[in-house]
Amino acid sequence: MERTLAIVKPDAVEKGFIGEIIKRYETNGLGIVGMKMLRLSREEAEGFYYVHRERPFFKSLVDFMSSGPVVVLALEGDGAIKKNRDLMGATDPAKAEPGTIRKLFAANIERNAVHGSDSKDSAAFEIAYFFNRLEMMR
Ligand code: ATP
Ligand code: MG
């Protein structure tokens, strides 16, 4: 079993897609072991996306991620990191495969509906960023 962190981003929360997105995790072998709704401060969004701090889109990304509530989930399953990345689709929804979350629910490369950890190291960092022991169900 492997764990990964997913975020339903502010655009998808605002459009009312929380349920549709979570259903896709649950029906594709990704069990929920932690979940909460919160609003990131600018500082919290900067810390989460620290690896992207030198990228030209960083300020805009931080503005977007702190613009409204998000839902963060710790997901568990066989090959959970890759499974979630496959379910999400490409960063740019215009390039995402049909049926993926981003193809179905995302507007553009920045407002792209969901986040998913991209490696074991990032999953460990990201889960610990949002959840303490008492907030994890196993
Ligand atoms: P995430 O990390 O959110 O799961 P990702 O791994 O597919 O997405 P990254 O390259 O890690 O993509 O970029 C992080 C986020 O930064 C993207 O999800 C998107 O919201 C934003 N982003 C990435 N590239 C661009 C870009 N060229 N222009 C604007 N925003 C971008
Ligand atoms: Mg990424």
Structure write-up:
This protein is of the alpha+beta class and 138 residues long. The chain has one domain: Nucleoside diphosphate kinase-like domain (Alpha-Beta Plaits, 2-Layer Sandwich), CATH 3.30.70.141. It is 39% helix and 19% strand. It is built from seven helices and four strands. It has a four-stranded antiparallel β-sheet with strand order 2-3-1-4. The longest helix is centred in the C-terminal third of the chain and has 11 residues. The protein is globular. The N and C termini lie close together (12 Å). 32% of the residues are buried. The structure holds adenosine-5'-triphosphate and magnesium ion. The site of adenosine-5'-triphosphate (ATP) has 10 residues, from strand 4. Adenosine-5'-triphosphate binds next to strand 4.
Q: Which secondary structure elements does this structure contain, and how are they paired or packed?
A:
Blueprint: E1 2-8, H1 10-14, H2 18-26, E2 31-38, H3 42-48, H4 58-65, E3 70-77, H5 80-88, H6 101-105, E4 114-116, H7 120-130
Antiparallel strand pairs: 1-3, 1-4, 2-3
The structure holds adenosine-5'-triphosphate and magnesium ion.
